[in-house]
Amino acid sequence: MTQTPVEPVAGVAADQARPDNALQGSGSTRGARKRSARKRSARKRKEAATAFTMLIPSMIGVGVFLMAPIVLVIIISVLRWNLISDPVFVGLTNYENMFNSNGFWNSVWVTIQFSFIAIPGAIIIGLFIALGLNRKLPGSGVLQIMYVIPWVAAPLALGIVWSWLLAPSGLINEVLGTRTAWLADTTTALPVVAFVYIWQNIGYISLFFLAALQSIPKDLYEAAELDGAGPVRKLWSITLPLIRPTTFFVTVTSFIASFQVFDLVYGLTDGNPGYPGGTTDLIAARIYNSAFTSHQIGDAAAMAVFLMLLIVVVTLVQQRYFSSRMTYDMS
């Protein structure tokens, strides 16, 4: 019995041919994806190259004016050098001399006292000034300019002017009707230096706080008023928590600045930092005297390295304290 061959139906033939077309289509799709990925990768490399090219001037500046001096100071700290004779490698001798020096530890203690007086005072007064300026009363713009002028002015010039004002025959004593030598008394010299520092920096601090206060949504205060919150409650529960990032920034920068104060003290003490009796002997002033008065460059470099490490450690402690207590989202 003969069987007649059956011709494949057109639809079946199409179905049988479809997998090959699907494979071809899938291959072309993968090829297109690979080309697209290569294009994106090339574009990203080009953008990265452009970004790094634009960063080169800044990177050169950071390297030359920041990193290179730090490395140079570390190298000098292990040398004995007076700027005239050839430097001699002495290892850690300069650090041993520093740690065994009573004068150095006195400078550290004086600087800590100065910071504990100046930093809280400047931050608290700056905050209250910012709260007043935030009310946008008449003349607030003029007051902002007046508060900033001392911070913009040269600290050395301010120190000289304040030394005249605080002299026994100066304007301060004339107004008070006294003849007190404010900067020659061991009990008043450091507080007076801290007072001048606060006066100089409250404008800078108040502007940062003012910017933070203006970024707080007013809806929060309105809701708090509806709940019966008074001014003190709003300050404690809304304002202070929401300006913690600014408080952190101001605290860190004020701490760093207070440990680097020199020119203001130099002007207040008529070029004799430490007078009277070492009560104004801030660590930055001791570094200056060691380097340019005693010509002990290695000792000064060792103290500068210690100061840098101290600032880094305290800054990290402050960052750890504030990091879990800060709120950035005010939406």
Q: What would your notes on this structure say?
A:
The chain is mainly alpha-helical and about 325 residues long. Helix content is about 75%, strand content about 0%. The protein has 13 helices and two strands, in the order αββαααααααααααα. The protein has helices at about 10-75, 95-100, 100-135, 140-150, 155-165, 170-175, 190-215, 220-225, 230-240, 245-260, 265-270, 285-290, 295-325, and strands at about 80, 90. The chain has a two-stranded antiparallel ribbon. α3 (about 100-135) runs antiparallel to α10 and α4 packs across α7 (about 190-215). The longest helix has about 70 residues, at about 10-75. The N and C termini lie far apart (about 90 Å).
Strands, helices and their partners?
Elements: H1 10-76, E1 79-80, E2 88-89, H2 93-99, H3 102-133, H4 140-152, H5 155-165, H6 171-176, H7 189-214, H8 218-226, H9 231-242, H10 244-258, H11 263-268, H12 283-292, H13 297-323
According to DSSP, the number of beta strands is 2
From the N-terminal CA to the C-terminal CA, the straight-line distance is 89 Å
Give the neighbour order of strands across the main sheet: 1-2
Largest sheet: 2 strands, antiparallel
Name the poorly predicted regions.
6-15
Q: What percent of the residues sit in helical stretches (DSSP H or I)?
A: over 70%
Strand proportion: under 5%
* Shape label: flat
- Helix run count: 13
**Structural class of the helices, strands and pairings?**
mainly alpha
* Average of the residue pLDDT scores: 84
SSE order, as H and E? HEEHHHHHHHHHHHH
Rg from C-alpha positions? 33 Å
